[in-house]
Amino acid sequence: MSMSVVEVRHLAAGYDGREILRDVSLSVSPGDVVAVLGANGSGKSTLIRTILGLVPLSRGEIELFGTPQPRFRQWARIGYVPQRLGAGSGVPATVGEVVASGRLARRGIFRLPGAADRTAVREALTDVGLLDRINDPVATLSGGQQQRTLIARALAGKPDLLVLDEPNAGVDAASQEAFAAALTRFAGNGGTIVLVLHELGPLRPLIGRTVVVHDGRIAHEGPPPEPAGHHAEPDHDHVHPHADEVKAGICEWAPTEGAKSY
Amino acid sequence: MELFAYPFMLRALAGALIIGLAAPALGIYLVQRRLSLIGDGIGHVALTGVGVGLLTNNSPVLTAVVVATIGAVGVELIRERGRTSGDLALALLFYGGIAGGVVLVGLSDDKGNSNLMQYLFGSLITTSPQDIVVIGGLAAAVLAAMLLLRPALFALCNDEEYARVSGLPVRTLNILLAVTTAVTVTIAMRTVGLLLVSALMVVPVAAAQQVTRGFRTTMAAAMLIGLASAGLGVVVSAEADTAPGATTVLMALVAFLGATIGGMIRRNLRRRHNRPPVTTEPPDVVLHG
């Protein structure tokens, strides 16, 4: 049990010979909820992508569940939630079909889906509040709902570790709450979470530890920052008069192609 | 219809139907991955294989399969390396393929335009019984791989990085897709010809997705459209004395137009029937009974 879920030692990585991360060490224990913060371009996404093997490691070592990452094979234990739905090609796919991909790591590629797979898909969609959309094309969903679909896909594999890349970037408030709730349930059941965030937002109560990436290194590590300024005053009632404006901006993320077809 | 009393016409029909069914089953993955034109490029490369076959007195279909496979795997390796110079590398490969093919065919004893045209635009009528066996066997293998591995291939083409993190053998699956593309191109060379091969992989999929909502239904509909286009293409071309390959592709395009217009009408009707339009953002809370 003392074995860490993710162990990173002196990691360096980058693209095309340009080093983005220079020397990063990080340890995530079972049940931890770790937020990786940092400015745009700081390398916070690169960090989790390197941990998952999507970016080649140039120096250092990574262990996943006690196994060196190059030899790690138990991918069913990891649920990955990318920033957005893949290329979004023209071929339609239903929400259920996308979420069913989450079962592949557990089932293997040669076995056809069975009752257990279908149950897991429905459970995962229930968890993010999208079961009623199971037969709808993903292209007709809003940006936030597509993000929830991706979380359901990761949850359907019943992972021990969830890795999320900016799950709340440009997501409407309803979806943010729905997936904050799903993540809280996942953590409550002992799941481990590593997520890249631009800002803590509604996920703040869930987060046990923050790691700030700056200039290719970990600049700060500790509990999430306490609210400061007006927010810290006891009589502050958290009214956000600009909430509407923020919401308006979100519309840009909603798919227009799918919306047009109705 | 009495045309089909001739065995060669029956063979032509059988060959066309087999390709009509198999090509879209592969093509849907290529479309999903935005590689709609890859079949066209591999077709160019296959022509070099035909030239090699004619020049060395081997079966052109066999050498075309080999050369197209080498080409397809090469394209996949270039694609995997990163996209920056991939586009140009692909162009070089494709034009090299067609130029090499034309030169090699010209050098062979069998030279002459009619021979070259046979491979470029198809020559269904000359399908031999052995050809049908080869086409049937290879198409069955392609179909089996595309249908049985659908969940994995769907995940791969939908989101390659997610597939990688799921522990899928991404590279093996990519090479499998490349090899099946080469095989499909080569066997389709007899029906629609190398220049129109890609159409049978892509157009039925484009038609199907005008009216479908899911991947599985799109695949099934595309295979049906491919089958119907191929069948109609052979019949119409026999009656009207037109080129079977091109007629088949035109049939698939008619299906695409029909599906597009049908889809538009259906959406309009739905709107007029006063069904509340599906909003992009449904209620925040959904109760499940």
Q: What would you note in describing this structure?
A:
Chain A is of the alpha/beta class and 262 residues long. Chain A is built from 8 helices and 10 strands. Chain A has a 6-stranded mixed beta sheet with strand order 6-7-8-3-9-10, sandwiched between helices. A 4-stranded antiparallel beta sheet of chain A has the order 2-1-4-5, with helices on one face. In chain A, a hairpin with a 2-residue loop joins strand 9 (209-214) and strand 10 (217-222). Chain B is an all-alpha fold and 289 residues long. Chain B has one domain (12-271): ABC transporter involved in vitamin B12 uptake, BtuC, CATH 1.10.3470. Chain B is 75% helix and 0% strand. In chain B, helix 2 crosses helix 9 (170-188) and helix 11 (215-240) packs across helix 12. The chains are: A alpha/beta (262), B mainly alpha (289). The interface between A and B is large, with 59 and 47 residues.
Features:
heterodimer, A: 262 residues, alpha/beta, Rossmann fold, 4-stranded antiparallel sheet, 8 helices, B: mainly alpha, 75% helix, globular
Distance between the termini of chain A: 52 Å
Query: How many domain units of chain B?
Result: 1
Total DSSP helices of chain B? 12
Q: Find the structural class of chain B using helix and strand composition.
A: mainly alpha
Q: Globular, elongated, flat, extended or rod-shaped: what is the shape of chain A? A: globular
- Class based on secondary structure composition and strand pairing of chain A: alpha/beta
What is the total tally of β strands of chain B?
0
Number of helical stretches of at least 4 residues of chain A? 8
